[in-house]
Every structure is written in C-alpha cells, then in structure tokens.
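In response to reviewer comment 3 from the previous cycle, which asked for concrete evidence that the modeling workflow produces usable outputs, we include below a single protein chain processed end to end. The sequence was submitted unchanged, and the resulting structure tokens are shown without manual editing.
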Amino acid sequence: MRTLRFPSLLALALLTFAAAQTAAAQSAASGSYQFTLTGDKYLKTVEFSAQTNADGSATGSIYFTDQADIIIQDVDGSGEKGRFAGYDLKVDVDGMVVNKNQAVLSGTVSSSSVVDFVGQRVLLTVEDNGDNTRVPDRLTWGVYKQIKRDWVPSDAELKEDPGVGLKWWATDYEVKGDRGYQMPRDESITAQTNPIIAYDFADADNTAGDIRVTP
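The workflow returned the following structure tokens.
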C-alpha cells in the first residue's frame, strides 16, 4: 500500500510561496527620460533599468548621452587633455537604494565615447512622480573618479603608532538614538554613500519620458 505524504507537499507549497513573496518584495527602478537643463540647449537622454537581488546587491544598466561640449582637464596641471562635442556612456549597475518613490543607483562605467570615463563611478538619483501631469519626474547624476589610497597615515614620531588601523563608531551626542556610522568611513562611491535626501535634483526643461520606481 502506498502512503501519501501531504505534509511534504504542504511544505513545498509554503517554500514556493515564500520564494514568490521574496521575489515580489525586491525593488526596481527603470525609465527613459529626455531633457535639457534650464538655460541650456543641449539634449540629454537617460535610459536605465535595475533591480535588487536577494542578497541586497543590484543588477542592471544605465545608458546616458549628452550633446553638450565637455573638456577633460589634466588634474596634474598640464592643461586640457581633450575637448568633445557630446559624449555617451554605459554603466553596469551594482547597487541601488529605494525609498518610497525615489531611488539611487550606483555603478561603474564599462564603455564610453570618452575613454577617460571608463572605470569611473556613477550615481543616478531618480524620483517617480506618477503620470507627470502635476509634477514631472526628476533626476540628477554624477560621474566620480575612484579614490585610491596607497598610503597609511601615522605619527612620524612613533616607531609603531598604535592608532593605525583602529576603527570606531561615531554618533551625534545631541541626537537620541542616532545610529551613527563606522570611522574611518568607506570612501568607495556606492548607492549608500549619501542619503537620498542629500541629493539636489537637476533643474530640467523640455522633459519627456517616464521614470518608474517600485519599492
């Protein structure tokens, strides 16, 4: 006689349901947006799509084009390295933070018409304002060079400075329950580098397209 084991089927069903709930809870942001900055005639286009993973990371891509003229300066002081009539870049997304209708995406430039941009970090901050009939969607962005520390600060008068390598937790004494953060701070450029409220959205005109954020 064969015995049916319903409890195992129920457990499988519960696991399947839990997996579906986890997938459904993952955040996402996407959009295609064209605009000019206030007082500027050059058209800019942003196309992006990203979603968080179960481990808290994110995957996706950002495509950005700008018709504005840009000048690449040599930071060592030798002057102008190049002048470009517009540029484009592609970013591989590796992080995303979502808060209600806003999201910050971070990633690394994997290809660009300006070689100097390849390998640099990008932050794209977006705001989804529905159908744009009353308040348009908003965004802002930045391209940042990687910070490379190839030296360790120490007291030259001490043969072995005991402070080297120490970490501590900094909080605001006047703010009750301040979560604070670990010091020295992580200098890598990620979606968590700054809170979303810290970003100023660009003043844009001639906007077209739609941005969608799913918490």
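The chain has one domain: 8-149+188-214. We consider this sufficient to address the reviewer's concern, and the full set will be provided in the supplementary archive.
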